[in-house]
Structure formats: structure tokens, C-alpha cells
Write a structure and sequence with these properties.
- This protein has 104 residues and is mainly α.
- Among the domains are: 29 residues; 39 residues.
- The protein is built from four helices and no strands.
């Protein structure tokens, strides 16, 4: 292979890599460069105060301090603990499963 063909192959490979980088968005067309932080910036749609007011998992809002709210929270916590206990026992049972032999 002659030197000219070697140089031509190298130039074609480099041009292909550059074109792939351009198509992948690594080389911007208009020359504007954005940092990774600027490209991935997200805007919150709710404030932390709004999130604090929303009940989570059957719990009452954080601003409620009545006895009924407390009882509702305790009931919700009990329900969550019972669900976790059920999940844990199912997981424990899966560790002791026996392999079933299948005949073909």
C-alpha cells in the first residue's frame, strides 16, 4: 500500500469520526457551547412548601396536629409495617424454596 493510500485512509477515518461526533451533538453547528450543567438544568414545578402540605402514604398533612390526625397517622404506620412484614415473610419463604425437577 502506498503512502498516499495510507494517508487517504487516515483522513477518511478522522473525517468519519468527526461526522459521527457532529451527528451525536458533540460538535454544535452554531458554535455555542453549553456546559453539561447548563444542558441538564431542570426547573422545579412544586415548591418544598407545597410538597410538605401533601399527605404521603395515608399520612395526614404536616400541619394537622389534632388527635384524629395522630390516630390516622398511627393507623397508616401500622398498615405500612404489616405490609413490610408480609413482604419480608414472602422473601424469607423464597430463600427456602426447593428446586422442582422437570421432565421433558
Amino acid at each position: 500500500m502506498s503512502t498516499f493510500l495510507k494517508i487517504l485512509v487516515v483522513v477518511v477515518i478522522i473525517a468519519g469520526i468527526g461526522f459521527a461526533a457532529y451527528l451525536g451533538g458533540y460538535i454544535p453547528l452554531n458554535g455555542s457551547k453549553k456546559t453539561a450543567v447548563e444542558q441538564s438544568t431542570q426547573t422545579a414545578t412544586t415548591t418544598p412548601e407545597q410538597l410538605a402540605q401533601q399527605p404521603i402514604g395515608g399520612m395526614t398533612a404536616l400541619t394537622e396536629i389534632s388527635d384524629t390526625a395522630l390516630m390516622q397517622d398511627v393507623s397508616a404506620i401500622d398498615t405500612h409495617i404489616q405490609n413490610l412484614t408480609t413482604d419480608a415473610s414472602s422473601l424469607d419463604a423464597s430463600f427456602t424454596d426447593k428446586q422442582i425437577t422437570q421432565s421433558y
